[in-house]
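#structure-requests
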Amino acid sequence: MHLIDHIDWASLEPMKKEEVVGSWEDVNSSRISQRDIHIALNNLACILADIEQSEESAKLFRQLQDSGYVLNGYAFSKYIYSIWKSEGLGAVREVMVANKSFEFPELTKHSPTLVEIGDQI
């Protein structure tokens, strides 16, 4: 299952420009912003982590970050969990060193199983 490989990240770029409403028809139409898409993809990545699709989850979280999306503590804990399960402790250490936004004990609040690796990070 490599659904993440089929996401066209370049297609999100034009949506950044769709901030201004130009006509009455635009006001009454359904509009999906890049932010909405990022939130939906973030939620998907969290769900993938919860159902043990760790490789796909980690890949999607990376792509979200590469496109400028900033993970909150909950999502980052799911990202760390996915990395641990799919790539091991070494990869977790690398990500934790690169990201100074969250302390490890904070992440265990959202993903309690991370306690198992807390003393190894």
